[in-house]
Every structure is written in structure tokens, then in C-alpha cells.
Design a protein that fits this description.
Length: 502
């Protein structure tokens, strides 16, 4: 009979995995430790959301909503666009709150340990009572600055630990080389041994210094911070950000928790300033009736002019759940077809090709094989990226142009006209394509991207919600114009022995 002996480390790991999340943490688990990186990533997400809600970014968002690309490809309806922006920011905050909830099970204090229930209650209408209870109106910016510093320290620790791992791997390789090196002549053996000893001493000194740096950064970062302190900071930040979202969007989006603001609060500057003319008309608008008072009210509700958007009587789902569901692109959009990033790459390649073709080539450039090969590579790449349907539409429109007037295409004025048309289309297609590419880059699996605290690109500004038919029609116009421009340049300025027709 063979007895199966389980390693102690495996049993300890099994006990940790099978432990109930409601069990109180032990004394050894009081600090974050390796979970400092998960906490730092969550803090970075919270700081990013906070920065995206600053006044300059909100004003820029309102300006982008009126841009030609969003108005034409997505919708000119401002309430609908605000609803999409709010849903995107709120879903990002929900993901951060989920991460905070996972860490809160390790806490000892009542508030951070019950954050999951607290955040759910805040979304269901008790946000203002929590704002008053935890004094979230004051100290929000200070809390964000502290988290920003903690994120930077965690990022440095992560980088230094990577360097330490590389040095330790080099040390192991050197030890293996010493063990398995074959016999060599005496003189060469002495020289090699001296060189190895010098290299080993240098590596050990560098390794010792690196371990000291890592130990110092551990003491200065979230590694030695308690769960209660870190989670409490993140929980209050999440609630204050939710309050901020409601202040900004609740006038336009139905279903957000009702909030009130004080004109002397630090967060008041992030809400639209009240208009006296709008107040005068408020009595005839839907919603609570305005009451005359001999004293000016201290608080103003942020939901006075709010009204249900896209709600039906038979809809029994919660408003916030319906709001988050609107982030799914409709069937007629580019995002629903799964072509957002591919179409963005096509538009960016067309923009690059236009930059190569803009203006007449200089005489010194006519013999530049490098630029010519680069252009051919861009054209081949652009052709390979085209879906079958778009490729067929481009060929059909090119045949139509050739049938109308072949000589007109060879005219310099017509070629310049095509160039102006393409520049006009790419002036608003290009930024949306770049935002689409940036949106995917911000959500990739890059490890250091987890600690980025800058405002993220909203899905509203990408091709995900763009109308598929309109987007493809604009792309066809751009590609047909580029084909005519390339044909004109090849016939009159750069006669080539080969040709690729899109």
C-alpha cells in the first residue's frame, strides 16, 4: 500500500482557495502584499474615470458630440449620445467597483468589507445619504492625488521586480554554466575562472543592490498598506465618482440616483451652471413644480428637467440595467458586424496613402525606390484589408467612373478635385479611426497599460456605434478617389511597369 503525502504548501493553498470570502482575515493577510498590483490597477482605473469627468474633458466631449463624424455616422440626437457616454463611464466604474468588492472581503472594518452592498444601495437611490455619511463632497481631489501617487509607486515596483527577476535568471544561468562546463586547458582554465569570478561578483553586487531597491519600494508602496486603508480609499473614491457622474448626466439620463448639489461644494464646478431663463421656464416643464420661497434654496436638484428616455410602460427592468445594456451596438452598426478595428485600419492606411500622394513629387523623389516600395506596400496592405463587399463596391464604382468619361479622369483638375474630396472625408473619418485604434490599445493585455491613469477613449468616439452602410459608403468614396489619383500620377508623373487596381 502506497501512502499519498500531500505537500504542506499545496494544502495551505487549498485551504486558502476553499476558505469562505466572509471569513475574517488572519493577521498574516492584513497587508496587500502581492495583491498590491491588483489594487494599483483598480486605483488607476478610478483615477482615469475621475480625470475623464473633469470640466475640460466634459466640454470636449460635448464638442465631439457635435462633430460631423458622430452626427452623421452615429446620431445627431444629443440626449442619446449623452446616454451612451454615461453608460460607458458607468460600466467602467462598475468594473472598478467589482475589483474593489473582491478586495473588500479581506478587510476587517465594517464599511469597506460591505462595499458591495453599499455600492448597490448607492445605485438604487441611497447615494446622497452615503455622500453625507462619508463626507464625500470634500477631499475628493486629495484622495485622487494620493491614489495617483500609489499607482506610480506600484508601477515602479513592478518594473524593478521585473529587473530583479532578470538578474536572478542570469545568476541561475551562470551557476548552471559553472556546473556543466567541460574540461579546458590549465592556462585557459585560469583565465576563464578569473573572468567568471569577476562577472559573478559584479552580478551579485548588482543583484544585492536591486534587492535593496525592491525592498525599499515595497515599504513605500501599497505592498505594506493594509487592506482596510487601501479598500476604504478606493471605496470612497468609487462613491464620489458615482456622485460626480450623477451631477453631470442626471439632467439628461433617466435612471441615475437623485443627487443634490450645493453651489459652495467643490464638486459644483463640474455641473452645468443654472440658467435664469431656464429656471423661469421650469414651471411649465414636466417634473416637480417650482415653489417660490422668500429665501434662496441652498440645494438644487440635478434631476429637475430629467425625463424618461426610451422607456416603455411594459419595461420592468431597472433603469441602470437598461442603461448599461445600451452599450451593445445595434445590429446595423460597424461594431455589431465586428469590423470596427478593421475599418479603422483601412481608413488609416488610406490616410497614409493620401499623405504620400499629396502634392507633386519632387525630381529627387522620382528615383527614390524606398518611397516607391513603401507606397506599393501600403497599397497592397490596403487592398488585402478590404472585405469582399467593400472591394466589390469599389470595383463597381470604378467601372462606372471609367464608363462616364475616361479622359476626365486623366485631367489634372479632376485629380485635384478628387484629392479635395478625399481630404474632406478623411478630415472627420481619420480622427474616429484613430480613436478606434486607441480604444483597442487601451484595452489590450499590456501589463504596464494597467497602471495608466489618463482619460480613456469613450466607445462613443469610435466606429463601434457608426452606421455600417454609411461608413462603407464613405470608405468607398475615399478608395475610389485614391484609385483615380494613383492612376493619374502613374500616367503623368510616375510611369510604372506594374499596377495594382483596387
Amino acid at each position: 500500500m502506497v501512502a499519498l503525502i500531500m505537500p504542506k504548501s499545496w494544502l495551505a493553498d487549498l485551504k486558502a482557495r476553499l476558505a469562505s470570502p466572509t471569513d475574517p482575515p488572519s493577521q498574516s493577510d492584513h497587508h496587500l502584499g502581492i495583491l498590491a498590483f491588483e489594487a494599483a490597477a483598480t486605483m488607476a482605473r478610478l483615477v482615469s474615470i475621475h480625470n475623464s469627468l473633469a470640466s475640460p474633458h466634459i466640454l470636449q466631449l460635448r464638442s465631439d458630440m457635435r462633430s460631423q463624424a458622430i452626427s452623421y455616422l452615429i446620431s445627431p440626437d444629443q440626449p442619446y449620445l449623452l446616454r451612451l457616454a454615461c453608460a460607458d463611464i458607468l460600466s467602467d466604474l462598475d468594473r472598478a467597483a467589482d475589483a474593489v468588492s473582491r478586495l473588500s472581503f479581506r478587510c476587517r472594518s465594517a464599511f469597506p468589507r460591505a462595499f458591495s452592498t453599499t455600492y448597490s444601495d448607492a445605485k438604487n437611490g441611497s447615494l446622497m445619504s452615503l455622500v453625507e455619511e462619508f463626507s464625500l463632497k470634500n477631499g475628493s481631489d486629495k484622495r485622487i492625488r494620493k491614489m495617483d501617487k500609489q499607482v506610480a509607486a506600484a508601477a515602479r515596483l513592478y518594473s524593478e521586480m521585473d529587473t530583479l527577476n532578470d538578474l536572478e535568471a542570469s545568476e541561475r544561468k551562470m551557476d548552471e554554466w559553472k556546473k556543466h562546463s567541460g574540461p579546458i586547458p590549465m592556462q585557459q582554465q585560469q583565465n576563464a575562472a578569473a573572468a567568471v569570478d569577476n562577472g559573478s561578483d559584479l552580478l551579485r553586487r548588482e543583484l544585492r543592490a536591486q534587492r535593496q531597491r525592491v525592498a525599499k519600494l515595497m515599504d513605500e508602496s501599497l505592498w505594506q498598506v493594509s487592506f482596510d486603508k487601501a479598500v476604504s480609499m478606493m471605496a470612497k473614491a468609487a462613491l464620489s465618482i458615482l456622485y460626480r457622474i450623477c451631477l453631470i448626466f442626471s439632467q439628461f439620463v433617466h435612471g441615475l440616483p437623485p443627487v443634490y448639489y450645493n453651489m459652495y461644494d467643490s464638486l459644483y464646478s463640474y455641473t452645468p451652471s443654472p440658467n435664469r431663463k431656464a429656471k423661469a421656464k421650469a414651471k411649465s416643464s414636466s417634473g416637480p413644480m417650482a415653489m417660490d420661497s422668500p429665501k434662496p434654496p441652498i440645494y438644487e436638484t440635478a434631476v429637475r428637467h430629467s425625463a424618461p428616455l426610451f422607456m416603455r410602460k411594459d419595461d420592468k427592468s431597472k433603469p441602470l440595467e437598461k442603461l448599461v445594456r445600451c452599450m451593445v451596438p445595434p445590429p446595423s452598426t460597424v461594431g455589431s458586424a465586428g469590423m470596427a478595428l478593421r475599418y479603422a485600419n483601412v481608413i488609416l492606411a488610406a490616410d497614409k496613402l493620401l499623405a504620400m500622394r499629396s502634392g507633386d513629387p519632387q525630381p529627387s523623389d522620382q528615383g527614390d525606390d524606398g518611397d516607391e516600395e513603401d507606397e506599393w506596400g501600403t497599397r497592397e496592405e490596403l487592398y488585402e484589408m478590404l472585405p469582399v463587399g467593400v472591394r466589390a463596391a469599389v470595383k463597381a464604382k470604378l467601372k462606372e467612373c471609367w464608363k462616364k468619361d475616361v479622359l476626365a479622369i486623366a485631367d489634372r483638375g479632376v485629380a485635384d478635385g478628387w484629392g479635395q474630396v478625399i481630404k474632406g472625408l478623411l478630415s472627420w473619418l481619420g480622427p474616429m479611426a484613430r480613436d478606434t485604434e486607441r480604444w483597442h490599445e487601451e484595452r489590450n493585455l499590456d501589463r504596464m497599460q494597467r497602471f495608466a491613469t489618463g482619460p480613456r477613449t469613450l466607445m462613443l468616439k469610435t466606429l463601434h456605434f457608426a452606421d455600417l452602410e454609411k461608413t462603407e459608403a464613405a470608405m468607398v468614396e475615399v478608395l475610389v478617389g485614391l484609385s483615380c489619383m494613383c492612376w493619374y500620377h502613374e500616367q503623368h508623373q510616375r510611369p510604372l511597369s506594374r499596377s495594382i487596381q483596387i
